Each structure stands twice: as structure tokens, then as C-alpha cells.
Amino acid sequence: MIQQDKAVIAKNAKAQKDYSEYLEEAKGFSEKTVRVFERAITIFNQFFTDDYKKLSKEDAILFKEWLKTDYMNDLQPQTRVMMLRQLSSFFEFLSREPGYRRSNLGRVSTYLEPDKADKKIRNHVDSTMYPDLEEAQKVFDAAAKDDTLIGRRDQAIVAMMVFGAVRIDALISLPIAAFDPKKGIVYQINKYGVRTKFDKQIPTVLMKFDSAMYDYLMGYPAILKNIGFKKEDPLFPSVQMVKSGDDLYFSTPTDLSRDFIASQETIRNVLRKRSEEAGIDYYSPHKYRHLAFLLAWRLCDKPEDIKVISQNFGHEKISTMLTEYSNFAPDILIKKASDINNRQGSVGAVDEKLYMQFQQFQKFMEMKGE
């Protein structure tokens, strides 16, 4: 790597600063999301030390290869795909800025398209992609056997992920005030300090996929209020810790603090513990989000229902739900395809109502520009 000229360093730093401001102010991205984009640029700067204006398509191609070298061997294919897309967005932005408009950055950005192999790995669906409802119920029941306030909290965590497809960062930042059990709505909005992806404002109607779990979740805030929790306190509090000598331990097995959970790993550990107790495989929090989308998908009757579910769970575009959250695991896909194949009747005997629904859906998608 050659040593950068101070003028080049300053110019590139200004370009990065302008882009960060654009993401935050024009696009409305959260500070956390902006940091992710900045990390991608920082890694790129380890490879390319010249003026961004001089970036060529050959440099872009070599950078993609560099990301796969031993030097960057800790990067997963999914991370490479996301990073390349973030960098492509950066250089496309820069190509419209004064001082860069005569450069080839707009065209060069297209050469940062992720490799097909990486995209296939990122989009790969295996048989353990997500739990089914029965497995989620078993995890919920395992927490129910823990007759403590921690067990009560863990039950509610599982239920909230299944019925609301709530992302993990939003989950740990929800105050009691953000949940209205009378209406069955959780308000993932700035007013309550809830951290959402891209700072989206998401009022979510919780879907009643299972009556027992749903009824429990609606009654959960009352449990907290009965032990003195206020509306500004966390809906899913951390466990209280006290120090005794050199060791940390729980003061009692039933104690909850008034503090918000600080780390996403806490939720993963909750699921690991309860899954082990239930005797099932561990599924990450995001895989429970996949379950929620799939269960909601099955409830859709009309074309607009798909848009409603998509937006209810925080996606502005239907295409995200259709491409990222509606894939079937191979074993389920084989069964469903076989069921379709074994149906009685000729191919020409198309159900009129189903055909009409399909036409409506096509028109709806065209109207939405997707």
C-alpha cells in the first residue's frame, strides 16, 4: 500500500463526511446504520488509497477479489454482498457531487455488483431456515415451566417475536408504554425511543397465530405493573445482578431490574436456553421473524392483504416480503409441490375465483410498481 498524499486524505474524508450526512439527513438513516456504511468505506480505504475520482472498473474488480483473500478471511459471503452494495451506493452518490461528475464513478459502481456465488449463498434456504409454530410453542412452554419473573419475561419475548416479527434491536428497546394490550398493537416508533431499522415508524398489529400465547402476551404488561413497573420502564427488562465478593450472581432467581437489556446477545441466550430446555434446535431471533411472515402470508386472502402484512411488519415494499420471507424450506417445498402435483382435475380446469384473485394481484403489483 502506498502512502497517501495529505490532500487526497482530506478530499476523501470530506467525501465520506458528505455521504454520511446524506444518509442521515436525506435518507433518514439512524446513526447505527450510518456507521455500518462507514465501516464498508473504511475497509475499502485499506485497499484503495488514491483519490476516489481515479477509481476504475479494474480497481472495483480487483477489490472484489481482495475481499476473498486471506487478509479478509473473516468476512462471510453475506457480509461481502452487503458491503459491496453499500460501496456501490456510495460511489453512485459521489458521481453526482461537484468535482466528481466528470468521473467514471457512476459506471464503476456497477462493477461492485456482488458475485453470483455470494448472492446464492446469501439467499440459500436450508431445511432449518426457521422454526415452525409448534416449535415456537415448545420454546414458549419451556419458559412457562420456569415459575419466576424471568420465565414470565422469556415467554413474552418468544410471543412478541412470533406475533409481531419484531427485530431484536427494537425488542430490547421497547418500553411498556409502546405496547397497547387492549388493541393488540406494539408501537415501534421514535416517540417511545424504540430502535428500528432505518428509523422506520412501525405500528404493528400483533397477529393471533395461537390463542394461548397471544392471550398470555396481552396480559404480560399487567405482571410488570403489579410489581411496580412504570410505563417508561422496559417491557423486557434485564435481570438484576449483585456483586458478592469476586463473583457475580443473580440476587434471587426471580429478580428483574428496571434496566433495558443492553445487548442483543441476551435475547439469543434466552432462546438458546429455552430451546435446549424444550429439546429443539436453536433458531436465531431473525428466524422467528421469518416464521411470523410465513404464518401471516397464509392468512392473506386478497392482493392488498400482502401489502398490509408487509407494512405491518416494517417493510415498505411487497417485493421484500415475497423474495426474502416467503421462501419454503426444501422439505416443505417438496411436500407442497407434491401435493399440487397430485391434485385431481385437468390443468385446464382453472378455478375461476382463484384466477380472478391472481389477476387482481397482478394489477395490484403493477399499480405499486413492483
Walk me through this protein's architecture.
The structure is a single chain. With 370 residues, this protein is mainly α. It has 16 helices and 7 strands. The chain has helices at 6-26, 31-47, 57-66, 77-94, 105-108, 116-122, 133-144, 149-164, 168-171, 211-226, 264-278, 285-297, 303-312, 318-324, 330-341, 352-368, and strands at residues 179-180, 185-188, 202-205, 237-239, 241-244, 247-250, 256-260. The model is unreliable at 346-350 (pLDDT under 50).
Task: Describe the structure in brief.
With about 375 residues, the protein is mainly alpha-helical. Helix content is about 55%, strand content about 5%.
Give short descriptive properties of this protein.
370 residues; mainly alpha; three-stranded antiparallel sheet
Largest sheet: 3 strands, antiparallel
Instruction: Give the termini separation.
Output: 44 Å
What is the molecular shape? Answer: elongated
Broad structural category = mainly alpha
Q: Into which percent range does the helicity of residues fall? A: 40-55%
Radius of gyration: 24 Å
The overall pLDDT average reads 81
What's the total helix number? 16
Give me the count of strands: 7
Q: Segments where pLDDT lies below 50 for 5+ residues?
A: 346-350
Q: What is the H-and-E element order?
A: HHHHHHHHHEEEHEEEEHHHHHH
Sheet with the most strands: spatial strand order: 1-2-3
